[in-house]
From TrEMBL:
Source domain of life: Bacteria
SMART domains: AAA, Bac_DnaA_C
Compositionally biased tracts (Basic and acidic residues): 91-108
Region (Disordered): 91-119
Region called Domain III, AAA+ region, residue ranges: 143-359
Designated name of the protein: Chromosomal replication initiator protein DnaA
Domain notes: Domain I is involved in oligomerization and binding regulators, domain II is flexibile and of varying length in different bacteria, domain III forms the AAA+ region, while domain IV binds dsDNA.
Tagged with keyword Signal: no
Organism of derivation: Spirochaeta lutea
Binding site for ATP: 187, 189-191
Amino acid sequence: MSDGNVDYRIFWDEAINQIKETISEQEYQLWFSRLEYLRSQNDSLFISVPSSFYRDQVKSRYLGLIETKLRELFGASFKIEFEVKPLDPYHPEKNNHQIHQEKKDHSQKVQSEVPPHSPSRAIPTVQDFGFSSLPARPKNHPKLKDVYTFENFIIGDNNSFAANAAVAIAKNPGTGYNPCLIYGGVGLGKTHLIQSIGNSVYQEFPDKKIIYVTMESFTNEFIQSIREKTQNQFKNKYRHADVLLIDDIHFLQNKTETQEELFHTFNALYDNNKQMVFTCDRPVSEIKDLTDRLRSRFERGLNVDLQPPSYETRYAILKKKIEASGITIPEESIELICSNITTNVRDLEAALTKLIAYAELVSRDITPEITKQQLKDFFANPKQKNITIDVIQRMVASYFNLSSQDLKSKRKTKAISFPRQIAMYISREVTEYSTTEIGLEFGGRDHTTIMHGCTRVADRMKSDPTLEPMVKQLIRQIKEESTKA
């Protein structure tokens, strides 16, 4: 069809431009902005990619789409050949000009065309949230970490609703979305968002009294006020706040007097249009031993959830943190981390911190091999922190054609007791709950019963070759379900 001297760049550029119109900006930026046309030879187009992992992902996700577009434009088929050519982070002038121009064009387009708070933005900035000219304050809020800002929060499909709600609250506290409850598993950004609200309000409204406290600290302070007979000071402190931010309200379980005090604090603030924001590791409906009237107060306002970040969001988070660290980490290493750590932001940060510490302490460049070696424990970690025992019970019960209540009941028939023990075993293997906590979720059983059940399943797995594959299959299904939830 062609000889080696013909340049088909014009068809390549047009094909990519047309594809760009059919996908999101974030998807384009992640998978297409770093593809570079190199040359054509006979019926083949040679395209450079920054890593072998990147090549494999583009081939599996988009090769058919690219080939179809080229065929539509040219009237004949091209074969796409990918060549791995890592970008040189130390000498950016050596990198292809087209890549930088595309990124520049993309940045300008985002600033001018994409609506504020759009979830398609990979790395939002503080300007996106409408806080471009905040009044200066002499110091940071004493109870809030200054790193917890909207500027540092990466928006993805998993958290865009919660992030936009937090921004709306920060811009107009007490006027809407009151109260607001942000819930989700550990390490997904609940504390980041609630403190971002506090930091933004602190800068935007200098006259407002902002109180941030964990539920545990609130409880301890309340107990101390009873012991020291300073209840009036305690009540005045919390009931005269303009913005009350309370982290981890699941610690209210089994704390009757604290619930009573929070109920009255809630009413006082709500009646005076004062903003309240809470975080929890689960929906309010799943908090045990919570009074109905307090539960109804939490459910009165806006409840938003945070889910595990998608691959694209994990990638954006790592890129932003790597840029801030000043350490150079190759694309393939970043992709390895994003592909193997799927649980939450906290695990991503922990892995990156270890990798950066290694690079600084031993003065070695990071390579994919070093990444695999240093992060092998992260990559092999079987625990997924967003998994709840409720999900395990539902999945195991469904597998054995039982109900979750059967697993929690006192019934000891073989048809129920062994599935119950399997659910206990999986709970111990894939969550960080203690045996005591697991026992409470299985009808109030004590920790020795849980340990006995786990031991029995482990022993049977050694003698029954069919049991281990079945348990592993259940664990995979539970992890997949928890990622969707």
